[in-house]
Amino acid sequence: xxxxxxxxxxxxxxxxxxxxxxxxxxxxxxxxxxxxxxxxxxxxxxxxxxxxxxxxxxxxxxxxxxxxxxxxxxxxxxxxxxxxxxxxxxxxxxxxxxxxxxxxxxxxxxx
Length: 111
Description:
111 residues, 4 helices, transmembrane helix, EmrE-like, transport, Small_drug/metabolite_transptr, membrane
C-alpha cells in the first residue's frame, strides 16, 4: 500500500473516530461527566490528527467531505442502535445518498 492508500485508510479511521466523538458528546451530558468527556476529547484529537495527516496527500475538499460523511453515517447508525432513534425509509434513503457521495468522491478523486 502506497502513501495514497495509507492516506485513504487514515481518512477512513478518522471518520470512524468522528463517529465515536459525536456519540460521545451525548454521554458527556454537556461535558459534565469526566470520563465520557475525556474519552470524547481523546477521540476528537485522534480524528483531527488523522484527518490532518491525510490532508498531506488528499485534496482538502474531498477528504473533508468524506470524513464528515463517514462520521454522519456512523452517527446515524449508532443513534438508531444505542438511542433507539427511528430509521425511516427516508432516513435510509438519505444515508444511501451520503454513501453514494462518498463512493463518488473516492472514485473521481485525483489521488
